[in-house]
Amino acid sequence: MHDKSQSNPLREGLSSKAVPQPCAIVIFGATGDLTHRKLVPALYNIAADGELPPAVAVIGFARRPKTDEEFRHEMEESTRKFSRQTVRDELWNKFADGLYYHQGDFSDEAGYKTLAERLAKLDEEGGTRGNRLFYFAAAPDQFETIIENLRKAGLNKAREGSWARVILEKPFGTDLASAKHLNRVVQKSFSENQTYRIDHFLGKETAQNILVLRFANAIFEPLWNGDHIDHVQITAAETLGVENRAGYYETAGALRDMVQNHMLQLLCLMAIEPPTDLGADSIRDEKVKVLRSIRRYQPDQVRRDTVRGQYIEGAIAGKEVSGYLAEKNVAPQSNTETYAALKLHVDNWRWSDVPFYIRVGKRLPKSGTEISVHFKNAPQVLFNRESVAVDQNVLVIRIQPDEGISLRMQAKVPGASFRIESVKMDFHYGTSFGKASPEAYERLLLDAMSGDATLFARCDEVEQAWSFIDTIREVWDEKKDAPQLVSYPAGSWGPEAADELMARDGRTWRRL
User: Fold this and answer.
1) Are 157 and 231 in a shared domain?
2) What is the pLDDT of residues 86-117, one digit of tens each?
């Protein structure tokens, strides 16, 4: 089961680049939204950028009867709609020649046996060299079934000189116990270096750039600690409601859906110590240390330092929207949170006494994800006589939608009077480099084809994240003494309780 042909993921320099290899990519759940909106458009964009190996076959695996031509036509319509680049007919026709459809039921062993036969034929005809990348775009409750059937069909084992890898979409479990169980199931069929647990936030350019910002710039690293930083805020805001995901969201909520994975991953990148090198395990070792260092809540701390909310009817951009309880497939008395705010601490030498504030929410007035680092005030002695208010320096890392970095600092207003105002130094990826950033799935698919697991979660990362989240969830799920689920109008910035969480510390949330 060991991935013998896996390219060495250790990157000896900042300019090094892993090379994607020819392979067959099997997408389980090929008729779903993820395949239509993200995966196939991402693969087309990789081809348009000239980075897709010439011998790549994409096989969609799903239950519905469909021909290869029907599948190609559907994928063309989706790609023209969702691709970040304009679809060029000549390139699409060449790309579509490598798209195939395989009908099969996830629970039927026969479909996997015929899939194995088809993959062997594609190896002979298309030069995919026996390399296999299995992408789980199906519902999480199907993961175990698919993994077991891949093993029974022998598809988890690659021939000599080839590799087999599996990409698992979140959520990876619903708590620590289920995550451990799923890890055991995966490990029966695929070794850890064959397993890629995806978090698309880590595929975004700005998320990756956090390491460069911190460790390649001497002006920041000496200040990146509790001596100079007052606090850190991480915000993920959405104007959307649950849309068509109520079935999943009712069992997850904001804490499981966003905090356990995306937000804690961003926190890790902000808080890690310098890794020994840029290899996958070196970086992930440091992330695990951060997760282990997060101070676990006692029940009374959960009630004091966490907020859970649920949106009610309101208006966004002048348009009235309904509340969560009025959404389709939502239980009338649902206690599912659509907003979560936390105050937490990383108990290590670097971050002693520096609070990290995390908030995520649906139906907020603006969509965006950002990290803001609020530095401690400079001594005010020099300006006491002038009665000048000096704001904190704030470094803002915008993850989406307008990827970039800005720094707020103080400057004197021109003129005879002595007035200080905040000014902003701003860097935008699009304008600075003259091209749009690739979509997150493009980078992650390329890395998986290259054998570079740096931006994917390791099993112990996932389990450590769940062990922290479970301390919150256990208190939230209590019928007695649980923190109250508070409402907030759609179009607002969340519950008043979240503002009070900050106000207790003499701080305020930064507006996006």
Assistant:
1) no
2) 999 999 999 999 999 999 999 999 999 999 99
Burial class from Cβ neighbours inside 10 Å (0-12, 13-18, 19+) for residue 472 reads: buried
Contact 59, 26 (CB under 8 A): yes
Spell out the residues 6+ positions from residue 497 whose beta carbon is closer than 8 angstroms to its own. Answer: 307, 309, 341, 486
Query: Position 53: which residue type?
Result: P
509 assigned to some structural domain: no
pTM greater than the 0.85 cutoff: yes
3-class DSSP assignment, residue 57: strand
- Provide the token pair at 44: 């087309």
Segments in 49-104 forming alpha helices (H): 68-82, 89-96
What confidence tens digit (pLDDT) does each residue in 155-169 have? Answer: 999 888 999 999 998
In three-state secondary structure terms, 507 is coil
Domain boundary among 147, 166, 197: 197
Q: How far is CA 203 from CA 191, 268, 284, 412, in A?
A: 23, 15, 15, 39
Domain harbouring 428, CATH code:
3.30.360.10
Question: How far apart (Å, rounded) are the C-alpha atoms in residues 208 and 210?
Answer: 5
How many other CB atoms sit within 10 Å of the CB of residue 434?
7
How many domains are there within the chain?
2
CA proximity to 68, closest of 47, 97, 40, 27: 97
Query: Do 301 and 346 lie in a common domain?
Result: yes
**79 half-sphere exposure, CB direction, 13 A CA radius:** 27
Residues 184 and 210 in one domain: no
The residue written with tokens 């029966």 in the block is 188
Going by C-alpha positions, the residue among 354, 365, 351, 282 that lies closest to residue 318 is 365
Contact assessment for residue 252 and residue 171, using Cβ atoms and an 8 Å cutoff: yes
The candidate with the shortest Cα–Cα distance to 312, out of 330, 295, 299, is 330
If you search the block for the tokens 């103080």, which residue do you land on? 410
- Ramachandran area for residue 260 (φ above 0: left; ψ -120 to 50: alpha; else beta): alpha
Q: Which residues are catalytic?
A: 262
By 3-state DSSP, what share of the chain in percent is helix, strand and coil, each rounded to 5? 40, 20, 40
For residue 360, list its beta bridge partners.
236, 340
Strands of 8-105, DSSP E: 23-28, 56-62, 99-103
**Do 282 and 407 sit in the same domain of this protein?**
yes
